[in-house]
Amino acid sequence: MSNVYEIPGWIDKIQEAIIEPDLPIIDPHHHLWHGPKHEQGENNPYRYLLEDLWNDTGSGHNIKKTVFIDCGQEYYKEGPDAFKPVGETEFVVEIAKEAQKDSTKAQIAGIIGHVNMMLGDSSREVLEAHNEKGEGLFRGIRHSGGWDADEAVKNAHSEPTERIYLEDKFQRGLEQLINLNMVFDTWHYHNQIKDLTILAKTLPSLKIVHDHFGGPLGIGPYEGQQDQIFGKWKDDILELSECPNVYSKLGGLAMPVNGWNWHKRNLPATSDELVQAHQRYYSHTINAFGVERCMFESNFPVDKQSISYPVLWNAFKKIAGSFSEEDKSFLFYETAKNFYKL
């Protein structure tokens, strides 16, 4: 987390009127994690639980449902390593049950956990354990593939290999998702999109959602190279979109790893700043995939290092401002509902 973001109230220094406050929204990508309890008047970035989620989802936009995405929380401390991630699903289920006590607020309607796909065929047992503990909320897994040779770029917490999407064991693990009618969330960097395309073509029955535009990097050796990277990224995204089993999440570009450095400023980003910086990524992806395979995502609280929740969704609504009501319905609600079976 950035030092600036740790300043109490920093994220709320940009206030905007809410655009289209009645538009129903599913936020298909957020995390939850423990941290020190909030002190009165302080905004602690290391904690994000139901109270914090509701503070964001209740800040003006009409957020109906959410999907939790794996982030390595509350794993079991004992037992076989392969089954330890099931503890995260239990952790989120308890929070979802707490949310159900107030149906007027956003409900956690789906859970994407983690299973090590390098387990190959035996990943099925762990998936079944997640499903049992998920009490109807478990939808699939994310095994992050983010890998880069440069030490300035942090590799994913799941410790992937360089070409993990092409590993035989990994693909055999993913086959178990197909057998159990579960989905696969991906997270990697821009130079790995082609590997995902190969994977998607190898397993055409696997339902895949591409997180965060494939992680265009802007730090380390990639600092200041957004324009050069965009050209190659654009071609790779178009090729990926030709795989009908792949969907795309629209968001997650405001992380420090993307190199926009909003987290270092005295003020967080405005919706107009995000639109100006990121419009071309959104427009190209929507044109390539179509609205039926695209869904806006918050990626909170990670993107909260750069922009507040209500301002972020204002930016999304500005990006979709000229779209038909039917197209907006897909981008903000229906695609997520259909993909995750919410």
Structure overview:
With 342 residues, the chain is α/β, with parallel strands linked by helices. It has a single domain, classed as Alpha-Beta Barrel (TIM Barrel), CATH 3.20.20. It has nine helices and eight strands. An eight-stranded parallel beta sheet has the order 1-2-3-4-5-6-7-8. Helix 5 (193-202) runs parallel beside helix 6 (226-241) and helix 7 packs across helix 8 (309-319). The longest helix has 19 residues, at 271-289. The chain is globular, with a radius of gyration of 19 Å. The two termini are 31 Å apart.
Question: What features would you highlight for this structure?
Answer:
342 residues; 35% helix; 8 strands; 9 helices; 13% strand; globular; alpha/beta; 8-stranded parallel sheet; TIM Barrel
List the quaternary state of the chains: single chain
Binned strand content:
5-15%
How many domains, as an integer? 1
Q: What is the correct CATH architecture?
A: Alpha-Beta Barrel
What does the overall shape look like?
globular
Side-by-side strand order of the widest sheet: 1-2-3-4-5-6-7-8
The first-level CATH class is given as Alpha Beta
Mean pLDDT: 94
* DSSP strand count: 8
Write the element-wise H/E pattern from the N-terminal end onward. Answer: EHEHEHEHEHEHEHEHH
Radius of gyration: 19 Å
Question: What's a quick, concise take on this entry?
Answer:
The protein is 35% helix and 13% strand. With 342 residues, the chain is of the alpha/beta class.
